Amino acid sequence: YLSEREALSLRELSLAGAHRPRSLIRRLLKTFGRDLSKLGDESVTAELDLGDSRTLTLFGVNADAVAAAAEAVERLAEEEAAAAAAAAALNATTVAVPGTVKLECPVCFAPAGTEAATTLALCGHVYCTDCLDLQLASTTDVPLLCAAEGCGRPFHVAQDILDRAPSPAEREQLMRRLLGPALKSHVNLPASCLQFCPAPDCPGLLRDFKEAAVRESRCKVCRGTFCLDCQYFSHVGLTCETAKEIRANPDYGLQVCSDWLQQLLLVACLAFEAFRVVHRVCFDRLTLLQALRWADTKTEFMTKL
């Protein structure tokens, strides 16, 4: 997988800024299709980010094809810039009608007509229906925010997103697609008491009791118990630094475990002595398992002394 990623040729083009015409995104969608499938050959993949960055990412295994697709975008941008300059010169000589308001789509900056437009419930900005659908399909961040300059208000989940689904099945699919990013956004909040389970491919969550004396939690999905500080398997009795050294150096780990077992055996011996059992019996006749069993109940023995 890593070798395939390293072999990919990647180009990232900015679609915003003073050097780009405002209508470039609209022109891209009209020229190369809503999914940009007509941009380059089958070896080129195009991803359009309609967030604050407004970038177009082109990547593929064929470097020449990726470069050709990038050149096609640059040519289109130059053509659109020239057309926009000509339109601006024409508009400068046109007298505006008082009281009229020009509604522009925040994505493609085209005049948003009433027939194929959608008005957001919370902020009132008007989107081309195709542009809104494209933003919903390409955005993975939650909450979804209005792309209008200076706005940033969130979408209304029910009215702006779910109600646009043409069928109950697609509504359910859209809801499931949003749940993952929404959960991730909530877990990453500083005040959240949840953590994602660190076990590979486990979708579970761990409860993080921040004031607890023992910083560990058990996942109800994979049944593993993990340290909440170092995100590794529980290591009660050892610091995170010591546990990390043990994982990195097996010989050091054996030494730590040996010292720990000797301490347990010593506690077991003291417990036997409290019940008038000869010290050598502990070492000569008891198995390690029996000694550990006595050591696990050392608290009960010590309270009886």
From TrEMBL:
Domain RING-type stretches: 101-305, 105-146
Molecular function (Gene Ontology), one example: ubiquitin protein ligase activity
Keyword Cell membrane: no
Gene3D superfamilies reported in the protein's UniProt record: Zinc/RING finger domain, C3HC4 (zinc finger)
Name the UniProt record assigns to this protein: RBR-type E3 ubiquitin transferase
Lineage of origin: Eukaryota, Metazoa, Spiralia, Lophotrochozoa, Platyhelminthes
Record CDD domains: BRcat_RBR (cd20335)
Organism domain of life: Eukaryota
Reaction equations catalysed: [E2 ubiquitin-conjugating enzyme]-S-ubiquitinyl-L-cysteine + [acceptor protein]-L-lysine = [E2 ubiquitin-conjugating enzyme]-L-cysteine + [acceptor protein]-N(6)-ubiquitinyl-L-lysine
EC number of this enzyme: 2.3.2.31
GO biological process, one term: protein ubiquitination
